[in-house]
Prior knowledge:
Blueprint: H1 2-26, E1 32-33, E2 40-43, E3 46-49, E4 58-64, E5 67-74, E6 77-86, E7 91-98, E8 101-109, E9 115-122, E10 125-133, E11 139-146, E12 149-150, E13 152-157, E14 163-170, E15 173-179
Amino acid sequence: MSGRVLSKRLIFSYLIIGVLSVLNFLSSYGCSSDVESTNVEERDGLLFVLGKDKLFSGKVVDTLANKILEYEVVDGKKNGEFKISSITGKVEMIGEIKDNLNEGQWRYYYPTGQLESVGNFENNLSEGKWTWYFEGGKIREIGNFKAGKKDGDWTIFDEKGKIKRKLFFKEGQITDDKEFIKDLFT
């Protein structure tokens, strides 16, 4: 059973990180600027004013899959804050983009508004310390990434804050797995 739990957590972690990349790609199509209400189109990774050979600069606000996407564009490239919110305006994801790449700290939120995870990107890859939280605010999992792959010590906690499991990764592969809490009633 612990293998299934670990697999579900790994899949969940990669889904969270991957969702940003997918939304970032999809948001390039059919977006409109709330500054000039000019349509933009994506060509070769750059945003242009629709039907023109002019690179777009300005703020883009668009909806995609019942989400509101907002980001700044400078000379055809996404640069600055990138935010995804629910239709009701609750922030679900916020971070920075530099030259179309995820950079710096990113934060992901539960629908309740509670912080779900926080970590950093360098050149569009997860890098350094990442932390996931239970909805109640306690740490659920903490670990490091190196060039987009899990690397080093990872600690998984239960909802009471006790260490449940410690994992060690090297280049995305588990090299050691220690279980600390065994639930005798499951």
